[in-house]
Amino acid sequence: MDEDRRRALVAHRPLAGLLWGFAEATLFFVVPDLLISWVAMNRGFRAGAWASLWAALGAVVGGAVIFLWSTHDPVGAHRAVAAVPAVSDRMIAEAQADIDANGWFIAAMKGPLTSTPYKVYALLAPHARLEGGGAPLAAFAPAALPVRLPRFLLVAAAFALVGRVFRKRIDRRILLAAFTSGWLLFYLWFWLVHPG
Question: What is the dihedral angle through the alpha carbons of 39, 142, 115, 42, rounded to the nearest 10 degrees?
Answer without folding.
Answer: 0
